[in-house]
Design brief:
Blueprint: H1 2-13, E1 16-21, E2 33-38, H2 43-51, E3 60-62, E4 69-70, E5 75-80, E6 87-93, E7 96-102, H3 107-117, E8 141-142, E9 145-146, E10 151-158, E11 163-168, H4 169-172, E12 189-199, H5 211-217, H6 223-237, E13 245-249, E14 255-257, H7 258-267, E15 274-275, E16 280-282, H8 285-291, E17 298-299, E18 302-305, E19 308-314, H9 320-338, E20 347-348
Parallel strand pairs: 2-5, 3-5, 4-20
Antiparallel strand pairs: 1-2, 6-7, 7-12, 8-9, 10-11, 10-12, 13-19, 14-16, 15-16, 17-18, 18-19
Length: 349
Amino acid sequence: MVKDQIIAIFTIMIDIHHKHPLKDLNSFGLDTRASSYAKPENLQALCEVLAYPDHKEMPLLVLGEGSNILFREDFDGLVLQPGMKGIEVVEEKGNELVVKVGASENWDSWVAHAIEKGWYGLENLSLIPGSVGSAPVQNIGAYGVELKDRFEWVEAWDLHEKQLVRLDHKACAFGYRSSIFKGEEKGRYIITHVAFRLNSKPDLQLDYGMVKKEFTKAKGSTPQDLRKVIIAIRSAKLPDPEQYGNAGSFFKNPLVDRTIFSCIRVEYPDVPFYPDAGNQMKIPAAWLIEKSGWKGKRIGNVGTWPSQPLVLVNYDGATGQEIYDFSQKILEDVDRIFGVILEREVNVI
């Protein structure tokens, strides 16, 4: 009786769904389910969900828009999707301003809004799928800009200390597609808000790859023009998840020792590379995958996208396990041919 009363109280505060379908909550479109699902829209509701009796011993998965996740099977636990919204300027000094954004805001909609308001710095990150709250987890980046370059702090619920905390740039320990949220403190924090340090004075970043070439070709001169160019580049290379299920870049670009790089360069003098800190070189994973014979390859309902082999596609009705097995074959061939071990960028569940 007492338990039934407690459950009734929690149900009034927030809807908790059982055996909840996740097909519309992951960009691969995989037909999986979660034992429980909730989308709290504020801190109080979040605490209520976490205190729900049935959830205390359940595995927890914090989900943004599911654009960087691969479900191999149903998730036997609680899927929690932070629903915090809102965009607020919390600090202004000269040309700089700090803007606080709710975790549930769509990333690209936020970028578009910032540019429209004259808050610049995120243009190169246009059209990246996902939510704002997920962006710091893997330190999203594209075309010479990473989230860490515009990051100020996050507010997050600390599951260990059971309190709201604010983590600054140093505390987040950002690296290439990594952070404490993906590394040593994985599973400890639930991000509720992210703050960005932006500028009312444009500083266009045009030095990466084809960006400058396409920007010049389009006779661009403004941040709005740069956003249009970035969107055009991404749209030409990447599939629309609404048509073909995918999670964008499936693998990270590997860092290899100069010794290994020198061996590769003997056989492949045209190998593209980017010098990295220390004694390492970054080689595009897409190039390694293509040279290993996997560009445009398809097995059953899974394949690599013809114009970007870094992207794995669910063409129609593939399972998460089939996609995982396909990626494993790529890993094995790249390792066999180049002696380089690729790392999956997506979160495999």
